[in-house]
Design a protein that fits this description.
This is NFXL1 protein. The chain is α+β, with helices and mostly antiparallel strands. Helix content is 13%, strand content 13%.
């Protein structure tokens, strides 16, 4: 591959060699055959058009840094890299070299730190990156300009100061004329010829407006004859004569000399007869030296395009490239291939096209054909189009294509209320156009909505003004266009005539009957109280006041109350006033029905007290039967003593004797069952051992084991009969 030094684009070595060859042929095609290949013309990069000389045409394959020829392939390195340190000098040159490994593309900015001062050398030196070592302190430059009278007023800058912008009266070089000119160009020439007498006294100076002395007369001193062999010393008024000798100057042929006598002007052409050989070397002929000799024999060799013969008369054998134009349309679709007839695909179009911004001040050159896909350059000039709204000037924005962006300045038009419109300019608002087109039928496709730019009226004024509501509850800021008395949506809240309720109407206007009236009193517009009296009644009175809502205290309640007694079995009718005015004891007696309490005590017996409130007394006087643990003995005891655990009945000696006998019987049964289980297990063990011995394989005899009856089995009937008899007697 080969990498361009300008754009660092990578091309195949064979492709770039073919491109360079075709480019050189395209440039040198207008030349004659004799000049072909002699003059050094540059060839451009296919992408950036960076020019290279003919000698710079790549012929060998190098790595990116140019140190190693034919770098070896290494999977751990960048392709086409030698792996060594780059060491190329940074651009612009700063004295340091790139420390990265051999890499494609441009070297990064120099990363070293240096201590530098600003452009004007006024600020203190500071450490900065070498790539950004040039910086400005923003102070006035102050350096003396070239005019020698004024100092530079620009801020600290790089390079030479700009020419002095001031104007002054200045004389020309010869001092004859005076004119107002820029201070930056103090020296200027007028159009007059000097005309001063030369030292010879015969001629005048023919130079135009010059400084210093005119010098000696150009015709004075020693002069040579036209052939240059004889020197004469003559006054400046006389011309130099010819010497009469032969001229002997070498003619244009470069072989023979001029045979004429010394003469003025150019020598004639060489007319000597010589024997010349044609360019192809096949024929010879005697003819004048100044005439070239070309025979009529046409060359039959095939040119490098491998399509056409040379067909050039008297060809020297070094056939030039095919002179027929390719003529195929290039990839740019604007031009045809101007190269000579060639093999393979055509090269990219060598022409360049200017792509301009909207105002035309910013221009970039791109290869032909890319102007349709490349974006126009970004222009840093401000847009100079006049504003399309009512403002005198538009917002500053850069050069662009298409319409200017909508104006965002405040409208500032005076509204009817006197305030200024604060919203953004709306002289060119984008509005959707509706109803402009009516479809001919259901078969017609609905078109997209059209948008038009039109001026919209100013919106209503939104300046806040303090406004009090109708009911004088609050003062709120309202927009200027709707600054009228309003309803705050609260309840009116003014005290009605009943002095118990307030007006529940929504905030409304209230007319004051007199100026001294309280602002919290209801007016004629307020509602009338239609509620019942809701004042609190005496404690225990469930009835409402029979009067409508009124001021002052309510009358006494005379209604009868229907109340159940404490036991909830009887219904009593009592006057409400008596019940509410009675104390606790009197209420207890009034609500009692005077009957026995029907409630059950925790023990399950009925309460013996008269109808009462609250829980029943815990002491029960009912007589109940108490038994011992074996249920054989019993006696009557008061219920309250049993609940308190004060009464109990213990078993006597007979009860204990019966318990002992029952325990012995149970123990004897358990012991007999254990012995029976042991015998059964012994029998199973012996049977299992007999099977293992295998004495009788086909016919096995069942062993009869005589089990001796235990003492319990022998005498259980004699023991159990008396026990069951005693139990039946006890029951």
């Amino acid at each position: 591959v080969w990498s361009c030094c300008g754009c660092f684009c990578i091309f195949h070595l064979v492709c770039i060699q073919k491109w360079a060859k075709d480019s050189l042929f395209l440039v040198s095609s207008p030349l004659t055959d004799d000049d072909f290949g002699k003059k050094d013309y540059p060839w451009p990069c296919p992408k950036c058009r960076f020019e290279y000389q003919r000698a710079e045409t790549p012929s060998r394959y190098y790595c990116y840094c140019g140190k190693v020829e034919n770098p070896a392939v290494d999977p751990w390195l960048v392709p086409h890299s030698c792996g060594q340190i780059c060491e190329r000098e940074f651009k612009p040159s700063c004295g340091h070299k790139c420390l990265l490994l051999c890499h494609p593309g441009p070297c990064p900015p120099c990363p070293k730190m240096v201590t530098t001062t600003c452009h004007c050398k006024k600020a203190k030196p500071v450490p900065r990156r070498c790539s950004a070592k040039e910086w400005s302190c923003r102070l006035p430059c102050g350096r003396m300009l070239l005019c020698g009278q004024h100092a530079c007023e620009n801020s600290c800058h790089a390079g030479d100061c700009q020419p002095c912008p001031r104007v002054s009266k200045q004389r020309c070089i010869c001092g004859r004329q005076t004119a107002e000119r820029l201070c930056a160009s103090p020296q200027w020439q007028c159009d007059q010829v000097c005309g001063k007498r030369l030292p010879c006294g015969n001629h005048t100076c023919e130079q135009v407006c010059h400084a210093g002395p005119c010098g000696d007369c150009p015709r004075s001193g020693k002069r040579f004859c036209p052939c240059g062999k004889t020197r004469f010393t003559l006054p400046c008024t006389e011309d130099v004569p010819t010497c009469g000798d032969s001229c002997d100057k070498v003619l244009e042929c470069g072989i023979h000399k001029c045979s004429q006598r010394c003469h003025r002007g150019p020598c004639e052409i060489c007319r000597q007869e010589v024997e010349k050989q044609c360019r192809c070397g096949k024929h010879t002929k005697c003819m004048p030296c100044h005439k070239p000799y070309l025979c009529e024999t046409k060359c039959t060799k095939i040119r490098d395009c491998q399509k056409h013969q040379c067909r050039r008369k008297c060809c020297s054998g070094n056939c030039p490239p095919c002179d027929q134009v390719c003529g195929r349309t290039l990839g740019c679709r604007n031009h045809k291939c101007p190269s000579g007839c060639h093999r393979g695909s055509c090269n990219p179009c060598p022409e360049t096209v200017d792509v301009k911004c909207s105002c035309g001040k910013t221009v970039i050159k791109v290869p032909c054909g890319r102007e349709r896909t490349i974006r126009p350059p970004k222009c840093k000039q401000l847009c100079s189009r006049p504003p399309t709204c009512h403002h005198s000037t538009q917002e500053k924005h850069y050069c662009h294509f298409g319409r200017c962006p909508p104006c965002r300045q405040p409208c500032q038009k005076t509204l009817t209320c006197g305030h200024l419109c604060p919203v953004s300019c709306h002289d060119e608002a984008l509005v959707k156009q509706t109803g402009s087109h009516q479809s001919a039928g259901p078969w017609e496709q609905p078109s997209e909505p059209a948008f038009i730019r039109t001026a919209l009226p100013c919106p209503p004024c939104e300046v806040p003004l303090p406004v009090e509501c109708l009911g004088q509850h609050e003062i709120s800021p309202l927009p200027c266009h709707s600054a009228n008395p309003y309803s705050c949506k609260r309840f009116c809240g003014r005290l009605l005539d009943c002095e118990n309720h307030t007006c529940m109407k929504e905030c409304h206007h209230v007319t004051k009957l007199n100026s001294s009236a309280d602002g919290k009193k209801a007016g004629p517009e307020c509602s009338q109280c239609e509620e019942e009296c809701t004042k609190p009644r005496p404690s225990g009175c469930p009835h409402r006041c029979v009067l409508p809502c009124h001021p002052g205290d309510c009358p006494s309640c005379l209604q009868m109350l229907k109340i159940k007694c404490h036991c909830k079995l009887s219904v009593l009718y009592i006057e409400c006033l008596k019940l509410t005015c009675a104390d606790l004891k009197e209420k207890e007696l009034l609500i009692s029905c005077k009957n026995q309490c029907p409630k059950e005590l925790p023990c399950g017996h009925r309460c013996k007290e008269i109808c009462h409130s609250g829980s029943c007394p815990p002491n029960c006087s009912q007589k109940v039967k108490l038994r011992c643990l074996c249920k054989r003995l019993k006696k009557e005891v008061q219920c309250s003593k049993i609940q308190e655990g004060q009464a109990s009945l213990e078993c006597d000696a007979l009860c204990k004797e019966m318990k002992r006998k029952a325990y012995e019987i149970k123990e004897a049964e358990a012991k007999a069952a254990l012995e029976e289980e042991k015998r059964r297990q012994q029998a199973e063990l012996e049977a299992f051992e007999n099977r293992l011995k295998g004495r009788r394989k086909n016919k096995r005899r069942k062993d009869e084991v005589e089990v001796e009856q235990s003492s319990w089995q022998k005498y259980k009937n004699f023991i159990m009969l008396p026990v069951f008899g005693v139990a039946v007697v006890m029951v």
